[in-house]
Design a protein that fits this description.
Number of helices: 3
Shape: globular
Order of helices and strands: HHHEE
Radius of gyration: 15 Å
């Protein structure tokens, strides 16, 4: 379990973005796309990430709907989130 100060920081960050996250998840749910054709979903994901200060690279691994995003320093521990749209 994360230290309470770090956990509180994460909880506050999520709470501050709750409305944006809800709109984002509602948009994805309401506009399904076929596999490897999730262009609007990728655009929405990248827009949300970049609006919150993260860099994003679309087209990773030769897949036009795959993307990689980065936040913070890359010389320490890393967290990876993998998502499937189906």
């Amino acid at each position: 379990m994360a230290p309470s100060s770090r956990r509180a920081t994460v909880e506050a960050s999520v709470a501050a973005r709750a409305a944006d996250l809800f709109r984002f998840s509602t948009r994805l749910y309401g506009h399904p796309e076929l596999g490897y054709r999730e262009f609007a979903s990728v655009d929405a994901s990248v827009a949300l990430l970049t609006a919150n200060g993260h860099s994003a690279e679309v087209g990773v691994g030769g897949i036009p709907t795959a993307f990689r995003a980065h936040a913070g320093a890359t010389d320490g521990p890393q967290v990876v989130i993998t998502a499937e749209y189906d």
